[in-house]
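A.,

Following up on our hallway conversation. Structure tokens first:
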């Protein structure tokens, strides 16, 4: 065919999510599961963003094992542990891909970049995207748009308010900031991974790689709590070389290509030094498995929302009536010079403790000047200082699940998220808690039907199942009931009763001791280097593996569900029957004689 135009595909949907990192994936899946039609646009060939196999940054979140993120993120992690005990990065990609593709309400467009947007007043009506693999245009009209791209790609074509760089100290009274605002930011990193072998493995660096001496690895200005040593320890629990970082002094978007080139020269030069010149360790038997070509970004554009989260909000543990998510990573502000900083004490990195968990309100996820624009991830409405804590991927994931669920509430109540009332927010919080998202200081209310039922358990165990606390607490109190093999939880009703569903929260092992002996993998089931001491990850030992559900409709017990390989911490079973009783029989757990249950209720 001579001449002509590229093919154009047109979509009309309820929600369009731009960006397929953990924030975008959780936004799309949560909305889809609540009945919303979604188009998910991702400019890379795989989902996952900074934790995908082409970047491989570790998922991190709130400090404290009891504050581990649940909801869709723990669902992803448990599936990865089950399917990928060796922690291969490409199989992690497939787990995220599988979560999205399982949802019939999601149309997923990979290799697709958002180019332009159309507006009607203060609302975005459509976006125009280019798909590299098919050389075709995709025009997506939607009632609501969610920018989870990290770079706020919808901000420029839509005119949505945003800012870049660091605020002046006077803007919000933040102690971390400087006297004058500037355009500096945290930079981006290229990571590397290595594997220990039983024989020496040579490494010949490319001619364009930089050469380094030991002195460059020993001193990096940091705060008074940290030495700033550039850790290049090679072990299963070793560093992923996050400090191979540049770009914060300039424009991390405009300079992305040249910064990537510099990072590659740096990364290959550092590996050459570790392998061939380092005096601190013998790396002769370590083989370089991978160096990324796509840098992982920490910061670029931040939207301006209905509220701007600040360092003071976080450190003072401010309580918000519209809390929909939480954080708990330290205020971790990287020096904008990154690896190029060799002694400039005026630009120290900062690593300050935060309350963990602290609340994040819905208003920081809603555009100030675009009626139907939401955002989640590292581009939320936060100051540079606050972003240094909220930017980590565990937090981004729960932010994504919050906005996806918020869209569902908005459609149900015939409103927009920007116009939410206190009642809408309360309904959203209820749904998030029901989907096993943790909201600090907000306790899930127990269904009335459960409270009125007779249970076969002692009163103290019934109280635990019904207290609305569905995780280990800070004092390491389990807050779960241990059910032995062959035993059951039995509900009995005073009369034949319509039961809509059964809900259980099972034990993902908040300590992670049964998942992996390695500290870094306990935080989230992803590995970096693989030493010869590596041990595959295991399913949580007290997670119920095999159980069945039976109902009594007046004619005796009848089985309605059975699983032999459960791998979810949240189990919800629709019932929609008039029954006199329901019982859950626990056959065995993944590695223990008891299955731990945080919550079990019916409605």
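Then the amino acids I'd put at each of the 603 positions:
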């Amino acid at each position: 065919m001579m001449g002509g135009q590229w093919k154009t595909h047109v979509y009309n949907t309820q929600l369009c999510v731009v960006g397929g990192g953990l924030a975008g994936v959780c936004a799309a899946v949560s909305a889809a599961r609540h009945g919303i039609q979604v188009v998910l646009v991702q400019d890379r060939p795989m989902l996952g963003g900074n934790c995908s196999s082409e970047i491989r940054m570790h998922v991190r979140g709130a400090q404290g094992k009891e504050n581990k993120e649940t909801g869709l993120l723990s669902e992803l992690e448990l599936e990865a542990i089950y399917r990928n005990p060796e922690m291969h990065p490409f199989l992690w990609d497939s787990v995220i891909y599988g979560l999205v593709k399982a949802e019939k309400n999601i149309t997923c467009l990979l290799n697709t970049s958002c180019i332009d947007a159309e507006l009607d007043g203060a609302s975005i009506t459509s976006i125009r995207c280019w798909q590299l693999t098919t050389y075709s245009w995709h025009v997506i009209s939607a009632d609501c748009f969610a920018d989870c791209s990290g770079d706020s790609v919808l901000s420029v074509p839509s005119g949505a308010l945003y800012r870049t760089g660091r605020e002046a100290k006077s803007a919000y009274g933040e102690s971390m900031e400087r006297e004058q605002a500037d355009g500096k930011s945290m930079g981006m990193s290229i990571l590397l991974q290595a594997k220990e072998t039983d024989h020496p493995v040579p490494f010949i660096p490319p001619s364009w790689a930089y050469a380094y001496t030991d002195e460059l690895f020993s001193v990096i200005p940091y705060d008074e709590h940290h030495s700033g040593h550039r850790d290049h320890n090679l072990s299963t629990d070793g560093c992923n070389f996050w400090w191979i970082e540049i770009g914060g002094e300039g424009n991390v978007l405009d300079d992305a290509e040249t910064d990537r080139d510099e990072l590659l020269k740096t990364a290959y030069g550092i590996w050459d030094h570790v392998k061939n010149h380092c005096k601190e360790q013998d790396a002769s038997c370590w083989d370089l498995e991978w160096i990324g070509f796509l840098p992982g970004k920490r910061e670029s554009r931040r939207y301006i929302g209905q509220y701007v989260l600040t360092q003071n909000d976080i450190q003072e543990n401010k309580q918000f009536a519209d809390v929909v998510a939480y954080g708990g990573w330290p205020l971790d502000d990287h020096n904008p010079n990154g690896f190029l900083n060799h002694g400039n004490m005026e630009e120290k990195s900062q690593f300050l403790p935060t309350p963990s968990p602290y609340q994040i309100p819905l208003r920081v996820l809603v555009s100030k000047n675009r009626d139907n624009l939401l955002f989640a991830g590292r581009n939320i409405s936060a100051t540079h200082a606050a972003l240094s804590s909220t930017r980590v991927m565990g937090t981004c994931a729960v932010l994504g699940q919050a906005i996806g669920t918020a869209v569902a509430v908005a459609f149900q109540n015939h409103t927009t998220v920007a116009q939410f009332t206190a009642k809408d927010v309360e309904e959203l919080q209820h749904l998030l808690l029901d989907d096993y998202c943790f909201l600090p200081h907000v306790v899930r209310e127990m269904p009335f039907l459960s409270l009125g039922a007779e249970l076969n358990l002692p009163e103290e165990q019934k109280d635990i199942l019904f207290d609305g606390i569905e995780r280990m607490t800070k004092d390491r109190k389990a807050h779960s009931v241990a059910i032995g093999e062959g035993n059951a939880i039995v509900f009995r009703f005073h009369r034949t009763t319509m039961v809509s569903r059964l809900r259980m929260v099972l034990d993902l092992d908040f300590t992670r001791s049964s998942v992996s002996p390695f500290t870094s993998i306990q935080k989230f089931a992803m590995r970096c280097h693989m030493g010869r001491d590596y041990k595959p990850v295991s399913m949580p030992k007290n997670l119920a593996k095999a159980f069945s559900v039976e109902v009594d409709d007046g004619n005796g017990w009848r089985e309605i569900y059975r699983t032999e390989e459960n791998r979810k911490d949240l189990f919800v079973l629709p019932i929609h029957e008039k029954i006199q009783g329901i019982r859950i029989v626990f056959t065995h757990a993944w590695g223990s004689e008891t299955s731990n249950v945080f919550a079990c209720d019916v409605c």
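The mean pLDDT is 94. Curious whether your intuition agrees with the design.

B.
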